[in-house]
Amino acid sequence: MPFASATRAFVSRCRAATTVAVSDPTEQCLQDRFALQAFRPSQRDVIDAVLQMRDVLCVMPTGAGKSLCYQLPAVLQRGVCVVVSPLISLMEDQVRQLRARGIDACFINSSLSPGARRETISQLDNGFEGLLYLAPERLATGELDAVLNRLGVKLLAIDEAHCISQWGHDFRPEYSQIGIFRERLGNPPTIALTATATEDVRADIIRLLHLREPHIVVTGFDRTNLLYEVRRPETGKDRDRAVTRILTDQAGTGIVYCSTRKGVEEVAAWLGEAFKGRVIVPYHAGMDMNDRTWAQDQFMKTPGSVVVATSAFGMGINKPDVRFVIHYNMPGTIEQYYQEAGRAGRDGALSRCVLFYRSQDRSTQQYFIDQIGKDNFDTDFRMIKELKEHAQQKLDLMVRYATGHQCRRQMILNYFGDDADIGACECDVCRRGTAIDLDAPIPESTVLLVRQLLSGIARVNGKFGIKAAAELLGGVESERAIKFRFHEMPTFGLLKVRSLKDISRMLERVSEAGLARQTRMQDSFGMLVELTPAGVAVMRGESKPPGLLADLEGVRVEKSSRKARQGVPDDVELDVDAKDRFERLRAARSRLAREKEVPAYVVCHDRTLRAIALRVPQSLEELETIKGMGSMKVAMYGQSLLDAMR
């Protein structure tokens, strides 16, 4: 066929396809009202079910377009669509966007003044047709029941529906009113939406909302553009250095999650000092509402900004170009980690998700578990016990993720029951090629080593922690060993050919594999260690160790990542060029000291400047090897010192 004829035929086919698309009211609404050309995977399936007046449970990952699944049907059906959402900022953003498209929308939450709330209710009274966003705490008052029943609710949408389940990672008591609220409205067709819901949480959502034979759509949990990585720094300073390097390498927008408010404030403070030219803001629930709003605005509108936050930040934040998410501390569940890490790369571009894990993180999460039920005076002790056990199981699985030697993506999919095939993974385990074959036979020497480690734990018998068990197995004649007669036990010195750090790490691995458990001391962050039933069986030779421990014999604790510091003896004579560099460095130090309003020695001592002048480092990395120049000083002053020598 000639080229011109082929072109005409192609154009004709395109026009025909366009005609078909536009003749479909759903497609036409997508293009005309939402300015989108095509549905994302599974959106059309969900929307069709909603338009058929069916109850729907929709589980889609962050950034997959859940909002459209109720907004588009609301436009087509007309009438009132009530959207229950726990997020004030999300409500306001979505209402603003809908109004910009000419779609009627309003919200009622605690941010409205009494006058603004009365005005909104009056608007409803006058025959409102559109989307009404409500905070869940507004449902219990019943103030809107009469007007909503008079208008007739066509659709009820529950955003972040996992919050209704006590077994979920983000249970909110006010969500328990939604099922009753739905009944008061006459049980309108309902769509429940969430990005994170395991099978038990999905069952809870259906039961508590009284969904009738719901159409269930689970689109999968695999985020192929996210590069998952776990790091296990030996010290807190090692972790801080690593975070500094990530922010230095990554110029894009990022989030740093901490497990406590105090941690947020501390990390935001030193990052702010280290990266003076970059917007770095804290965010946690203890801050004043105006301060939180300001911090969120700075993060949303400033390129390359970084927010340091607790889990209070992020749900519903629509910023597609987040290039990295760092977890400074390990969260308590894989659901929470998946949701928070999933705020990276919503635009589909490659993004980093780095989780730092230290054993103290487990202690912190254990403390949170111990607090369950303490503020509830009408306590159902059986329920509290079940909640704690459930939270403990989820924490154990989170620790296994952080310490495991399997593909990170595969572990996440396994957790959510997603059987999708994974190919060309770029997680840290797959990049290193260190994934363990869980079905491979374990060498007998490794089996013996595991049993020796377990026997050491059995001897401390839940009265001491891993450090004491390591000292026992390592044959350390400490004051504790003498006081508690460790040296008389048959396991004393059983592994003395190993270093204490190696033995401690192996004991951690045995615990992480489920053969031992660590429990928090009463009113303390210290941890005790004891065998689990599975550990007892392995120690007695009744069963084999799990495949996760196949590489245990090769465990060696790496030395601190800090490089050997290079100094210069005070009596070393500097040549003419080195003296010139030294004087220029001193001038630069004086300028920096004036800018920071600190004494010159706080920037660095003369002996450090002498070492720099003699060694002549060519990069920030080389500068960090100079004695007296840590990562913080390099981040704050390094470039100025290098420039001074040039």
Could you explain the architecture of this structure?
With 646 residues, the chain is of the alpha/beta class. It is built from 27 helices and 15 strands. The strands form 3 sheets. A 7-stranded parallel β-sheet has the order 3-4-2-5-6-1-7, with helices on both faces. Residues 1-21 and 559-563 have low confidence and may be disordered.
Q: SSE layout and pairings?
A:
Elements lengths: L2 H21 L1 H10 L8 H9 L4 E4 L8 H10 L2 E5 L3 H13 L4 E4 L5 H12 L4 E5 L10 H7 L1 E6 L19 H7 L5 E5 L4 H11 L5 E4 L7 E6 L4 H14 L3 E5 L3 H14 L5 E4 L5 H13 L4 E4 L12 E6 L6 H8 L9 E6 L2 H12 L10 H23 L4 H9 L11 H5 L11 H17 L5 H9 L4 H5 L16 H13 L3 E5 L6 E5 L1 H7 L36 H21 L3 H4 L2 H10 L4 H4 L7 H15 L1
Helix pairs in contact: 2-4, 3-4, 14-15, 18-19, 18-21, 18-22, 19-21, 23-25, 23-27
Let me know the number of strands.
Answer: 15
Percentage of residues in strands: 5-15%
What order do the strands of the largest sheet run in, or round the barrel if closed? 3-4-2-5-6-1-7
| N-to-C CA distance | 67 Å
Please give the radius of gyration in angstroms: 30 Å
State the helix count. 27
| Low-confidence segments | 1-21, 559-563
Q: Which percent range fits the helix content? A: 40-55%
